Amino acid sequence: MVHTAARSMVVETLGDDAWQSILAEAQLNGELFISGQNYSDEVTFALIGAIAKVSGIEPENLLRLFGEYWIRYAAQSPYGTMFRIGGNRLDTFLSNLNRMHASIHSTMPASRMPSFEMLRQEGNRIDMLYTSDREGLTPFVEGLLKGLMTHFGETGHVSHSLTHEGDVFSLNCETASSALPGAA
Ligand code: HEM
Question: Hey, whose CA ends up nearest to atom 33 of ligand 1?
């Protein structure tokens, strides 16, 4: 699904020719990508590298933009129901994220799921601890969380820091919408 979303983002913003150049650059000629199928991480990282090279966007920035795009893409996909089941508020959704991944994992045993633990919620800030056996995805996670904020009608920013607790992402909401407690 990540690969089909990447193709969609590239074709929408840079056109089909750019996508063909990216496949050639990543040595993935003729690859169609099927949602729900497992691909090795090498394919994903080759694709990210090739998109960065062809688009001229710096890889970290690209991962951030792609994270935001992925949320919009997934919410409109057949998996969109997951977004509705997960809750209609940002904090509820975030606390259900592990359960959601666990239920997807039961249908895709080869998948390697991350963990997202809500550490604290203070005022308009939510701190999430991210744990994964993959490296180099923190800008992607930043984009995903920003995308989720937008999805739930929030504006604000997401920051990342490596603390004694681990990889902590702080979601700083500017709007006091119904996505957070205490709001009307
Ligand atoms: C429709 C909703 C979602 C579906 C169907 C879904 C599905 C998946 C699957 C199948 C994987 C495992 C990939 C593999 O190892 O093969 C995965 C990994 C991941 N998901 Fe989700 N997910 C969803 C929503 C989210 C959301 C909302 C976030 C936001 C934070 C998120 C963050 C991640 C991250 C960061 C990884 C993996 C990379 C790592 O190892 O850290 N996912 N997801």
Answer: 114
128 and 153 Cβ atoms separated by less than 8 Å: no
Is 31 within the bounds of a domain?
A: yes
Pair (154, 105) in one structural domain: yes
pLDDT beneath 50: ranges in the chain: 178-179, 182-184
CA of 184 relative to ligand 1 center, distance in Å: 31
pLDDT of 141-166, one tens digit each? Answer: 999 999 999 999 999 999 999 999 99
Q: Name the residue of 35, 104, 131 whose CB sits within 8 Å of the most ligand 1 atoms, as the mutation to test its pocket.
A: 104
- Are 106 and 31 in a shared domain? no
Tokens of 161: 């820091």
Q: For all residues of the chain together, what is the average pLDDT?
A: 92
Q: 123 CA distance to ligand 1 centroid (A)?
A: 27
For the full predicted model, state whether its pTM sits above 0.85. Answer: yes
Residues 109 and 49 in one domain: no
Q: Residue 27 is part of which domain span?
A: 2-57
Q: How many domains does the chain fold into?
A: 2
